[in-house]
Each structure stands twice: as structure tokens, then as C-alpha cells.
Design goal:
Elements lengths: L11 H24 L13 H7 L11 H16 L4 H9 L3 E7 L9 E8 L6 H14 L5 E14 L8 E2 L10 E7 L1 E2 L5 E11 L3
Parallel strand pairs: 2-3
Antiparallel strand pairs: 1-2, 3-7, 4-6, 5-7
Protein name: Phage tail protein I
Pfam family, one: Tail_P2_I
InterPro entries: Tail_protein_I
């Protein structure tokens, strides 16, 4: 809070300028305090996260992630760039955004040398063509240059309320957006009471593109 630094018995106009100057200095101090954390993704003001993510060349940020996911992804960026081209970088980059990632190396499924399969579980995102393309773009940028992705499997759990009357049996039903060259596998549960929660595990499986 500003206080008058000059005597109050001088020209009132001088006192007014005194208070205005104090308020301006206080505003500058607040801005300076914010800049102290500008490079710390876990403490920086949320409005600077997107700019910091761009500066740190953070992967997988579409602008729709939760704030805590953005902070973790940015915080991991330095180590991910250091170990770019390794399975660790892939799993850590996706893990920061709460996506389970499982890599199957070529020698585990009798594939071509330096080929691999990737199984991702974007639990809070519906699978779309745009999401598939964004993920593959990031995978191709993070993987070893000599490596080739043979297959990308995307799966998520669709949880929803089943509308059935009391004592009746309802079936949960879920759909996914068709993607050219991919097959959709959906397994729905049966619910036997009103207002039940149905779960459908939806998997999209198909070859990746270069």
C-alpha cells in the first residue's frame, strides 16, 4: 500500500504525483516478481505457460491440456531433448500428459530390424484423425532417425451413464471416429440397474504413415 513520502503541507499537486509514482512502482514490482519465475514451469503464472512451452519446444501440447499436464510436460522438456531418439524420451513425453505408452521393439515380435510398435492410451482425449496425426508427428520427431513405426494402437476408456429403467438391463454403446486404414474395436459392458455407469474400451488399430 502506498504512503506519502513527501510532507503533506507542500503543494497538493506534488503530493498527487508522489502517490501516482508510488502506485506505478508497486505495479512494476509485481511485474518484476512474476518474471522471477518465468523460467520455472511449476511456479510461473499460468498465462505464460503457452509461451514457455513454445520456447522450450515442448511436445504434444495442443492447448487443450490441463494446467498441471502443461507444467509437467514443460518441466520434462529439457531431459526429453537430451535423450531424444530413445524409448525413454517417447514414454516420458507421453507420460507427462497422462498417456500410457508401451513400446514393442522389433525383436519382441519378429519384425524388421529397427522397427517398433507403439501402444498409446490417451485416457482423457477422444481419438480423432487430428489426434492421430498430431501423435504420429510427435513420435516421428522423437524417435531414432533409423527407426520405423510399424503400428500405432490408440485406446481410451469411454465412461458414461446408461439410461435404463429400474430393474431393466441396458447396454452401453460407444463409437469412435472412423480413420482410414484403421480398424475400430469397441467392447461394451452390460448394466443391470438404473443410472449405472457403463464403460466401453475403444481401441483403434492400424499401420502408421511416414
Amino acid at each position: 500500500m502506498c504512503t506519502d513520502l513527501l510532507p503533506l503541507n507542500i503543494d497538493p499537486r506534488i503530493n498527487t504525483l508522489d502517490r501516482l509514482g508510488c502506485e506505478r512502482l508497486e505495479a512494476l514490482q509485481i511485474a518484476a516478481d512474476e518474471l522471477l519465475n518465468i523460467g520455472d514451469p511449476m511456479r510461473v503464472d499460468a498465462r505464460y505457460l503457452d509461451a514457455l512451452a513454445e520456447d522450450m519446444q515442448t511436445y504434444f501440447l495442443t492447448g487443450e491440456e490441463a494446467e498441471d499436464q502443461k507444467r509437467r510436460a514443460i518441466a520434462n522438456s529439457f531431459q526429453i531433448h537430451r535423450k531424444k531418439g530413445t524409448p525413454w524420451a517417447l514414454t516420458q513425453a507421453f507420460g507427462a500428459l497422462d498417456m500410457g505408452a508401451r513400446i514393442e521393439e522389433w525383436f519382441d515380435y519378429d519384425g524388421e530390424p529397427y522397427h517398433f510398435r507403439l501402444d498409446l492410451s490417451p485416457t482423457d482425449k477422444q481419438i480423432t484423425i487430428e489426434l492421430r496425426d498430431k501423435l504420429l508427428e510427435s513420435v516421428n520427431d522423437l524417435k531414432n532417425v533409423r527407426s520405423t513405426i510399424d503400428e500405432l494402437v490408440l485406446s481410451y476408456l469411454n465412461v458414461h451413464t446408461v439410461a435404463v429403467s429400474a430393474g431393466a438391463v441396458g447396454e452401453s454403446c460407444s463409437t469412435a471416429e472412423p480413420i482410414n486404414g484403421y480398424t475400430i474395436e469397441a467392447a461394451s459392458t452390460l448394466s443391470a440397474y438404473a443410472g449405472a455407469v457403463g464403460e466401453a474400451s475403444i481401441t483403434i488399430r492400424g499401420g502408421a504413415y511416414e
